[in-house]
Amino acid sequence: MRVMGIDPGLRNTGWGVIDAEGNRLSHVANGVLRPDASCDTAERLLQLHEGLVTVLRRYRPDSAAVETSLSNRNAASTLKLGMARGTALVAAALQAIEVREYLPMIVKKAVVGTGHADKRQVAMMVARLLPGCDIAAADAADALAVAICHAHNSATDRRWSEGGASAPAGRTAEGRRQ
């Protein structure tokens, strides 16, 4: 299964593509999209959309995962992040790719083992989980972490649905709380 992780932002949007086969993960590509800061918001969102579509078409992932956030201290920043997230979701949906969203705490827990890891710890664990991977920037490392989180969650979902095993108490086969 090929997975694309996206760490959205209006200034920098990290992306990372991995292949997951069973427990084996391998790095495919990663990078950062940087819309022109001198442009207005609509143009920057268009640049972001076009960049994501280019990456999606080039690497043809089976699914995509986008990091979500609850809020920031600054309302304007939260709104801009929401617009970038929406652009990422639409770019994948327009390519008919399944998209899931994960909170940063869930991504960090899946990759590092604790939901309160810092960016340095996330980048270090991504490098260990994807040996030989040349990570473009911190935003790309975060995107690869999102992809790894999604690969692990998808594998668990498949085991529950294919193996006939029941989901843990209090959860559906999709991993949601009942």
CATH architecture: 2-Layer Sandwich
Q: If you compute it from the alpha carbons, what radius of gyration comes out, rounded to the nearest whole angstrom?
A: 16 Å
Whole-number mean pLDDT? 89
Proportion of β residues? 15-25%
Q: What is the count of structural domains?
A: 1
Structural class: alpha/beta
The biggest beta sheet is recorded as:
5 strands, mixed
- Please give the CATH class: Alpha Beta
**According to CATH, what is the topology?**
Nucleotidyltransferase, domain 5
Distance between the terminal alpha carbons, to the nearest Å? 28 Å
Shape: globular
Helix content, binned percent: 40-55%
Elements, N to C (H/E): EEEHEHEHHH
Please give a structural write-up.
The chain has 178 residues and is of the alpha/beta class. The protein has a single domain, classed as Ribonuclease H-like superfamily/Ribonuclease H (Nucleotidyltransferase, domain 5, 2-Layer Sandwich), CATH 3.30.420. Helices cover 47% and strands 20% of the residues. The chain has five helices and five strands; from the N terminus they run βββαβαβααα. The protein has helices spanning 41-59, 75-94, 104-111, 119-129, 138-162; strands spanning 2-7, 13-21, 24-33, 63-67, 98-102. The protein has a five-stranded mixed sheet with strand order 3-2-1-4-5. Strand 4 (63-67), helix 2 (75-94) and strand 5 (98-102) form a beta-alpha-beta unit. It is globular, with a radius of gyration of 16 Å. The relative contact order is 0.19. Residues 170-178 have low confidence and may be disordered.
